[in-house]
Write a sequence for this structure.
């Protein structure tokens, strides 16, 4: 067991380690330079910074700094009624706010014993897959963007905007939807929604072909991504790696399959995996997930009923009290396990909520470890390949 | 799962076992046995995925509840180990040697709740807050509104509402309103 949990980095080259365990990094020796990547840097993934010490082009030490976006969401939600937590919780991750809505609603339902109607379950599944699709349309070509391949990013952003159009007609909002609420969802599909979505999906089918030619068959992309930023299989449990980052080393863990929720049991899919664990493997897994998400949305639209109840009765939201209890709800976001620990104490407000975002582990302990011995030009590529989202670290 | 819980109960004298779902169980254990139990679950029962380390402030009892979430990826169930520690001079044995990410969680709990984890690497370094000289902000007695009013000057032309009465007014506009509106520029 001790061998399995040996996570010391390779220090065989430099710097030397002092007797007290600290690195012998003397900046006045001119052998080392300290550099801040972020928080104001176009390559950084959001509001965070990585403090790196370099020797030549090679990183010898890395430290992630967060706190640039701390808004105290968990504290704010503890001081508000259950329903008032929604406008706050969705802002915990801008990239995919729908997962916040889902896990918060589900936690309240779990502790209150509320079952939601079947139609609402289908609509929630659809909203979550649409959220995954718009996120992957940014992330998949975004990996090329870190190697200055900007064209794919522009294609992806255009298509993402079309999905946001569909969100707008379904929920009334483009980014923060607040569509999923305790008891169900806010509305049925608008007339003609499925046809318009299908038109968008056809464009994405074409994008999938084009982005393969542009990125995955591109020799420069391959040279920069293959063998770089490798995650070892044994790191997955040591660092708490989840989602596509874990699947890219051949560990097939997906909350949708392992702990089925909503209507995922009725959908036909297998989480894609890869073996090599490098940037190319992670990009390939996300690319295949993009194709799969398009297929899942088509399956959902074909299988879901046309009409039905969308909301179960809930107590008056202004006087809703929940008995003392605690639960943990998890879902599979495009970045991996996205969970919420929710504690109630019998009052009209939660006692404690704690979000478990994948980036908490990926951008802190894992990134700091992966950057050691990496080349300075690969910092952003490695960071983007982990799909980090700083707001879910500092909440 | 029941066999496992019976074995654990014999060995560690669990004080409380609650099933939230078939695959989610909350256990309570004495502080001195907590890290032993977590280590046992990791090394011998296959709970290799550490999900979360969290804290709940039960200020009325003078206790912090530390919550360790462990997941068994093969059998697909979760055990949540809870332990109570005193709020005054709060201190807990560090678990940073078990999983790498625990260092970050303990750093956060040190800053947000003031719980010390002696020996945890960098536990006293700033995590999110810089130059913070108030009580740890996630403690229940920390009043965010008062801190905000004391620290930041009121912005001109900004109105604030009491959330409960404002929502009531918006949801039931025909009823007599009790909404309080404070004009900070007056």
């Amino acid at each position: 067991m001790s061998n399995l949990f040996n996570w010391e980095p390779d220090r065989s080259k430099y710097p030397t380690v002092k007797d007290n365990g600290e690195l012998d990094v003397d900046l006045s020796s001119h052998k080392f330079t300290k550099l801040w990547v972020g928080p104001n840097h176009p390559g950084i993934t959001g509001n965070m910074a990585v403090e790196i010490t370099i020797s030549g082009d090679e990183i010898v030490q890395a430290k992630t700094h967060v706190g640039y976006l701390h808004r105290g969401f968990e504290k704010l939600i503890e001081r508000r009624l259950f329903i008032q937590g929604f406008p706050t919780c969705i802002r915990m991750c801008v990239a995919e706010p729908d997962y916040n809505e889902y896990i918060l609603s589900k936690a309240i339902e779990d502790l209150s014993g509320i079952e939601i109607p079947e139609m609402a379950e289908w609509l929630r599944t659809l909203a979550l897959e649409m959220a995954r699709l718009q996120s992957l349309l940014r992330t998949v070509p975004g990996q090329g963007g870190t190697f200055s391949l900007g064209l794919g990013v522009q294609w992806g952003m255009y298509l993402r905007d079309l999905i946001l159009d569909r969100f707008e007609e379904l929920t009334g909002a483009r980014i923060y939807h607040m569509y999923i609420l305790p008891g169900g969802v806010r509305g049925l599909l608008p007339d003609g929604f499925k046809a318009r979505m299908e038109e968008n999906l056809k464009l994405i089918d074409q994008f999938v072909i084009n982005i393969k030619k542009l990125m995955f068959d591109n020799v420069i992309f391959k040279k920069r991504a293959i063998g770089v930023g490798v995650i070892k299989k044994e790191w997955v449990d040591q660092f708490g790696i989840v989602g596509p980052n874990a699947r890219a080393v051949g560990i097939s863990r997906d909350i949708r399959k392992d702990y089925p929720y909503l209507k995922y049991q009725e959908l036909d899919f297998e989480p894609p995996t890869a073996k090599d664990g490098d940037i190319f493997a992670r990009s390939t897994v996300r690319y295949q997930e993009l194709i799969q998400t398009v297929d899942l949305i088509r399956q959902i639209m074909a299988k879901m009923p046309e009409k039905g109840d969308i909301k179960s009765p809930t107590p008056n939201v202004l006087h809703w009290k929940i008995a003392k209890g605690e639960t943990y709800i998890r879902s599979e976001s495009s970045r991996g396990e996205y969970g919420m620990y929710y504690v109630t104490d019998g009052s009209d407000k939660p006692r404690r909520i704690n979000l478990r975002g994948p980036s908490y582990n990926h951008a802190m302990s894992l990134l700091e470890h992966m950057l050691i011995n990496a080349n300075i030009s690969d910092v952003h590529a490695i960071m983007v390949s982990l799909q980090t989202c700083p707001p879910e670290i500092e909440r | 799962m029941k066999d496992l819980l019976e074995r654990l109960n014999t060995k560690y004298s669990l004080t409380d076992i609650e099933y939230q779902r078939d695959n989610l169980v909350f256990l309570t254990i004495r502080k001195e046995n907590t890290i032993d139990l977590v280590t046992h679950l990791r090394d011998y029962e296959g709970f290799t995925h550490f999900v979360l380390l969290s804290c709940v402030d039960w200020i009325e009892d003078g206790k912090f509840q530390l919550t360790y979430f462990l997941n068994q990826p093969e059998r697909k169930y979760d055990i949540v180990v809870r332990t109570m520690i005193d709020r005054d001079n709060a201190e807990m044995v560090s678990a940073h040697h078990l999983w790498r990410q625990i260092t970050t969680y303990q750093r956060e709990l040190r800053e947000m709740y003031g719980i010390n984890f002696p020996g945890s690497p960098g536990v006293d370094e700033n995590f999110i807050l810089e130059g913070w000289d108030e009580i740890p902000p996630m403690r229940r007695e920390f009043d965010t509104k008062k801190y905000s009013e004391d620290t930041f000057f009121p912005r001109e032309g900004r109105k604030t509402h009491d959330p409960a009465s404002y929502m009531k007014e918006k949801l039931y506009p025909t009823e007599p309103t009790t909404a309080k509106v404070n004009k900070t520029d007056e």
User: Anything to note?
Assistant: The domain at 2-130 of chain B is CATH 3.30.460.80 (Beta Polymerase; domain 2). The two ends of chain B are 63 Å apart (CA to CA).
